Design the sequence.
């Protein structure tokens, strides 16, 4: 039987926190009962919007509030582990912004504790909950691509947002989570090459390559100093290919028939040269639901029905392990790291 | 004093040869005097268009024709060396399709011979002659970018065109030539990771990274099995950045003011997040002259005025050395190759 | 001296009302004190988000609440007049969704009453408050365009949203308000040609032409049954031209140098043919502030400082007069209507 | 039985003539035997390319050459009638650039003469021969659109090319020919509103509306002073809609499922608002054959097999009648002209 309304606390009211608050406030089975941030300005701004919620600059006050069932952690990554440990320790369900933690050892301890406490632990691998990725998973699931050959992603824009993590932890993490969800397999090795172009900053540009047991390969380009915003993923298969352009509001996902891609004659080769493509394109309708709505609703649902989150502790851990390996490769100038 | 009209032979009438013929035919100081290809169909098709030219399936006939001053070699790469050696040996000026040769040893022999024969040797690094690359070189030359930080290029499409070379020799070569022309510096090392997804074929997908003595880095993504055609290069600098999209007929080159890219405050960081960019964009008018027109005209001009081609033997050699290193890295699974 | 916080009621919680509520809730000098809608579901949904506000299904309750200073009317157009009359009559300031009213006679009565009551009356001509239109107004104000030659707007998409008005009142009204703001002049005549393609529905497609005393001309294409969403306005001048594409997040506003548009020679004409443009393009950075934030903040500011709204009653009236003329022309099969 | 090779003369070597020459030179069943232009520079330039062709500045010399079977008229419109009359009068087949003539009376005389002489008369309504329009015709022919509701075309760019005709005769003519080909029906009336913004020039901007016996409507926007090049046609139907963007090399033709365009509920209306579309998109592969190749090959084929051209005299006449009506409407300030 489903439980009653889940009363929630939100910790961390910086960039992403207000979006979590907005989505929580609209969920019929959740209640935003507590807002917490060390910054009083942010706290007051959100308190104006949600006057029904208690507020405090101290996380301890959240834990002391016996009415709170679940905690949403939207603070900088470095504090995820400590806050989540404390919340799980006090028997609360926890929804953590990506990345789950800043180390795999920490992630393992969170998983253990959540299990012992029988609490729901979910990491916000946000793209997993987007209608576009769901549509791509359906295409792959039906076998329309044939055998997958490569995953290639460009995720770049202008702006240094994160000061405590590098661009891999900020942006490439999305691709790690998407790949984990779409292909359900773990690479055997990875390399990461990066550059820190700004004095005193972490890497702002990186190229990651993921190697698999077979011929499949994945590559991710992330950059905070790009002159143009790009969010585009190509997935190549033996039968069809997918173009996923998250900024193309009209055709976010396109499925391309490969057609006569391999020219068997000189004329066919010429035709391919002057032509842009050799097959039809199909762009399925993608729903407009906000990914964060789906993610928060899924978390509440898992709590009420004792379900297992699509992106729970183990999914979070797998991605943190990839991030750690990427950091090791970056530090070693791009040396391959076995996984 | 400038010489008279240069009488030219064209060897190789496959995909690119007819374009060379068309441009040659329109040059006031050149004459298309001889067409040569082993394939009689191609030969007859071109002969219909240029009935003034002699034709033969034998290259030896070209060399025997005393009226021919210059030879254009547009055959598959593997034959470039032999044909060019013979032509230079007989005192002809030679214009060779890219790549100059398939090995650096061969390229060095061509350079030597051209020098001894006092013949003009030019390799068709075609993008060097495009109005777009010329515009970018001007922007860089004026110092508008500040210090260059990275060069990132995506050059992908659908279609296997080349059977005797891999995708690096077919597509990445363009970026090697463009970088050589724009930055005038040689990388200290490179890595190339690739995949041959099709039975019996060479690599159809590759990621190349070029390392330099300082913090500058270059990366090139080439792919013959991509669902979409992309020809886009990003050049990042400390002051401004360039977007060069060769398929954007309206704004082929854009110069982006970096503006407040490094957020010094939380609000600035937020503004960068929700905004697409932080500075103005300027798109200079790019002329419509065909690059191959510029290249062929430049070759004829060098012959008549005894000038040095912008992309002569040494430029061709530098690029072939990079291609060789890329092949070694590919074969070693992406191991860095010192240059 | 500026007044204290303005306490606001919001009437109408359909599509646009929640956006008004969200912006109001974030204004430091305003308070969302009352929510009103006949539909109890909408009322409850918003009440969850803004528990501090009183709620009622009866507008009379709003007027009875002595703490309310200002009323935001976001109901269907047909009720704007009656609600606004009542609110002004009780001494409240009023912010009305576009259109101000459904007839010019009604608009004139509202203007009179607002003046007599010394209340602020503002119509939400939303695009007037967008950063993009502000940037265009600045370009025009500096004289950069030279003499304005034409205004051409395409505002189309898929979806019948409004049941009580036709596509002209829903979409073309935006262009009427933008033109009024940018050029500050009234056309001498207009024609409107439309089609009602769906049984029992008003016109879903219309073409409007606005004639002026001189050679300037304006044209607006609106369509609810278009296969693609377009929001693009071209403004031509003797010196420069503006492209305003509201869906181009990267380059929302572009200023194009006209350059050698008028070919004085055969070669220049040829160059124009093969080229896409003849001058540079400049895309100024456009701020990311939401237009509705600017509009609501401006209304509150006008109340507190007794200022005159940029889009007050007379601006609303001018646009309603154009809408009435458009309806007369539509009914007469596109006959010109003198203004 | 098919005839032998057709020997052709080309008159008029301005902008379009060289394209005709290039396509003719590649047709296996045609021969470019004569080049004619009053301008000796143009004549010499083309003679260099096609040394096999005779040349003359006098059209009379073409007619005197007994070896010539067919004449291609690519001169300015004002001379089409006289040259075509003379060529038909001497028993030659004629291919005329659009428009067929500058008056319907002239077009009727050409049709008569061609019939009496049993000569093929074809007008180069070039888009009728493009793979994109062929693909759209196929979609319409299969009934995929349902009942056609509207045709809306934007055909604008920067550049005054034509000095002897206005923008309607230069650009809108393409839409008249496309509509004639796609729908096979004649409008009952049309209006044309235009402006001549440049001293001493004909109209550079025009809006044309075509009325039909039923609810179908067509609208064409042509402009020589636009800051951006657009070639986009929307065709709306009760079941599906077509987007034909001739500058979108990847997806030139898209077929859009209309889906739930008419919102039957508040939620559906909201979904349509925030979403860009309500159905799938399908972009068929469009061949890369040049339209002018198809047109010239079709003409040669009609001559050899005594076939009737798809765009013969009567198609040319229908379009000239529309152009004449447009001119009358322009002169009358946009008054409707019955057809």
Sequence:
């Amino acid at each position: 039987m489903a439980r009653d309304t889940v009363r929630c606390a939100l910790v961390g009211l910086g960039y992403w926190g207000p979006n979590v608050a907005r989505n929580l406030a609209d969920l019929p089975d959740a209640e935003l009962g507590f807002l917490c941030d060390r910054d009083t300005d942010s706290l007051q701004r959100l308190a104006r919007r949600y006057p029904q919620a208690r507020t405090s600059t101290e996380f301890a006050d959240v834990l002391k509030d016996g009415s709170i069932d679940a905690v949403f952690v939207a603070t900088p990554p470095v504090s995820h582990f400590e806050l989540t440990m404390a919340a799980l320790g006090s028997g609360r369900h926890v929804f953590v912004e990506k990345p789950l933690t800043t180390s795999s050892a920490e992630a393992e301890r969170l998983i253990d504790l959540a299990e012992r406490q029988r609490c729901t632990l979910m990491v916000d691998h946000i793209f997993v909950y987007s209608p576009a990725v769901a549509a791509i998973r359906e295409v792959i699931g039906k076998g329309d691509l044939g055998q997958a050959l490569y995953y290639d992603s460009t995720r770049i824009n202008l702006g240094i947002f994160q000061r405590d993590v590098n661009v891999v932890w900020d942006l490439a993490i999305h691709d790690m989570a998407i790949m984990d969800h779409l292909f359900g397999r773990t690479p055997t090795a990875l390399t990461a090459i990066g550059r820190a172009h700004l004095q005193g900053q972490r890497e702002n540009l990186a190229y990651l390559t993921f190697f698999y047991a077979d011929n499949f390969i994945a590559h991710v380009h992330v950059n905070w100093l790009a002159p143009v915003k790009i969010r585009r993923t190509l997935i190549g298969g033996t039968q069809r290919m997918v173009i996923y352009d998250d900024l193309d509001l009209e055709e976010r996902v396109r499925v391309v028939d490969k057609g006569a891609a391999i020219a068997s004659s000189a004329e066919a080769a010429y035709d391919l040269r002057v032509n842009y493509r050799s097959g039809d394109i199909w762009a399925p309708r993608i729903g407009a639901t906000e990914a964060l709505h789906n993610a928060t609703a899924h978390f509440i649902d898992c709590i009420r029905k004792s379900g297992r989150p699509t992106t729970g502790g183990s999914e979070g851990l797998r991605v943190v392990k990839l991030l750690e390996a990427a950091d090791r490769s970056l530090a070693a100038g791009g040396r391959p790291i076995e996984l």
Remarks:
- The mean pLDDT of chain B is 92.
- The radius of gyration of chain B is 22 Å.
- The longest helix of chain B spans residues 313-331.
- Chain B is about 35% helix and 25% strand.
